[in-house]
Amino acid sequence: MMEERALVPALSKRRAQTLPFGTRARVALPQGDVEGGLALTGVDRRAGTAIYALRIANQSASPLRAHMTCARSRELPVLAYPLDVHVAPFSIAETLLPVRLAEVGPYDRAIVKVSGADIAFTLEAPAPPRTSPRKRWIKVLAASLVAVLGAAFGAAVATPRIDLLAAPARAFAGAPLDIPYAFAGLGSMQYTLQTKDGRQLAAGLLKDRQGTLHFVLPRNSGTQLVLAATLASPLGTAQASRRVLIAQAPAPVTAVAAIAPRIESFTVASPSIVAGAPLVVHYTTNAKSGQVWLIDETGRLWASAALFADGVTTLKVPQGAAGQKMRVVLHARNGAADTVSSLGVTVQPGDVAASTVAAASPSTPLALVLSASSVAPGDDVVVTLKGNHGDSRVSLTDAAGNTVEQGDVPAGQDAVTLSAPSVKIETTYYVVASVSSGVSEQSLVQKLVVTPR
Asked: CA 20 to 30 Å from 92, out of 127, 184, 324, 391?
């Protein structure tokens, strides 16, 4: 069942032809709703470009694709935007779609067709109003109305936001390092890559809204790197930072070949991989220690557990991993020697109703616990959320409220590790946990003092 309505109340036919309206649509599916909206947010007459804002909220398990054309009465549609917009399951896509007026030619309306496995609907928005030297006041009036009527939708798209900065938790000195990124809103993203002691290794300014940063780490890069990104615009500033632990590359296997770790078998024992359920893996190895990781395609770590001598490890798959392709990675270690094996899996959506009820249950009060309240620069701080909770975001902020580092604690997990920042004098920071509990959200705060050695 689909509902479709104009973004603003109906006006007269003559006035409607001069104002940049759009449409919204909502489709109810058994596995989740799909909502979409398209609006004309502005026209750059000097560049000859009309800007449309597209927002699609996909709460279903099916990937969606959006294709944009422009049409004129009694004529075939013309391709307006060469790239399709892909929307992953259980995600929200917000983007600006520029239409070059000289290439498309005169048209009456822009059309975005949204389609998936078992769904198809369209969104429409009008062409920009035509102007003439004798009616410049109409252009001024239309621009003012766009700013007022499209503020709620256009500002959400133009507000700076860093959506992805997928730095791995660890890397080898002297090896390549690839970090996918994505940001939204106005402006360009500036980044810096520094060592733990503040030595800058790389910096740059990114105009493409998504891509991959490529680095080759020097062998003297120390034990930790800090990647900081800043996106500034007239509508605000967004910042993000990631810390990457640096390990020395394994030495060539020569005299210690007899004790080098080996993985002779590695299998997933669970019949199906379901979000919110245990994931059991079996392995045979001569390693004395190691870990099993659950990592997505961007390198983000979702779950981890230790390697055991009996060859069986159980991971808890978070609810937020539903619908994603993952890698189960076995990292085996003997002394300074390492070896890795991985298996690809796809996480199926689970029953989120039980986890939502558990998260909303007031029987167990929430508590934020730090492994230490006073640490030295570079020390790891384990942040634990005790009690039932949903997906949570943990941030380390300074006294001015600036975010230094942040991490996620999905529903079904209870801890995340942060690194104490580098300081020259004793400095007080605050660990803030934004916790979703059922339909509500609350914040928990703990003080963290960082003292130089």
From this structure: 127
CA distances from 206 to 181, 182, 256 (A): 10, 10, 45
Please report, as a single letter, which amino acid is at residue 200. Answer: Q
Cα 175 from Cα 195, distance rounded (Å): 15
Radius of gyration, alpha carbons of the chain: 26
* Amino acid identity at 348: Q
- The residue count for the chain: 453
Handedness of CA 178, 179, 183, 187 (dihedral sign): negative
pLDDT at 143 over 70: no
What pLDDT shows up at residue 321? 81
The answer to whether 165 and 181 are in contact (CB under 8 A) is yes
Strand pairing report for 440-450 and 427-437: antiparallel
pLDDT in tens, 281-335: 888 888 888 889 888 887 788 888 888 888 899 988 888 888 888 888 888 888 7
Burial class (CB in 10 A: 0-12, 13-18, 19+), 348: middle
d(CA 176, CA 170): 12
The dihedral over CA atoms of 337, 259, 261, 291, expressed in degrees to the nearest 10, equals: -70
For residue 231, which of 215, 207, 213, 211 has the smallest C-alpha distance?
207
Sign of dihedral through CA atoms 414, 302, 287, 248? negative
> Tokens 């689970």 belong to which residue?
350
The answer to whether the CB of 241 falls within 8 A of the CB of 404 is yes
Which structure tokens are listed for 198?
A: 């503040």
What is the pTM (predicted TM-score) of this model? 0.30
